[in-house]
Amino acid sequence: MSxxxxxxxxxxxxxxxxxxxxxxxxxxxxxxxxxxxxxxxxVAATVLHNDRGEVLLMWRHRFxxxxxxxxxxxxxxxxxxxxxxxxxxxxxxxxGYQVAATALEPLAYNQPIGGMCNAEHTxxxxxxxxxVADPVDTHEADRIEWFPLxxxxxxxDDRQIVAGVAxxxxxxxxxxx
Length: 177
Prior knowledge:
Layout (H helix, E strand, L loop, with lengths): L4 E10 L3 E9 L6 E8 L2 E7 L4 E9 L4 E5 L2 E3 L6 H13 L1 E2 L6 E6 L10 E7 L2 E2 L11 E6 H9 L6 H13 L1
Parallel strand pairs: 4-10
Antiparallel strand pairs: 1-2, 2-3, 4-7, 5-6, 5-12, 8-11, 9-10
Helix pairs in contact: 2-3
């Protein structure tokens, strides 16, 4: 199978967070047509793991799916930031824990909706973070709690953890134990 031919694209909508394009393309051996493409900034996320074998999770509501679930700190990489700098910033803003960007270990990378979106999620591992302040982004979570890593698989099975970036990072940590 060969690559699809792209003849051009036009932006239908654009904001600082998302862009929607219609791409004029042709799959091999198929008719030419317009396909939608959602463009998003890269996301950096972090699994925080302590010396007691626990992970830090944030209980939050997602309006788009009307879902409550446990998540890991994550957010959009801002202009001029490296992935690890963004991950460390998001941890501090969302949880009040501090981690050094240089101490973060790459844990997982995925493209969650590759057929229609350029989204890229990079997940890091932070060991033994230090609580230095209250979270700045208080709208990010109703509660922040430590859970035994041994409980995570059941939480995923019970749909208590459903966010793709969290599931990816936590399952990767479980696989590496």
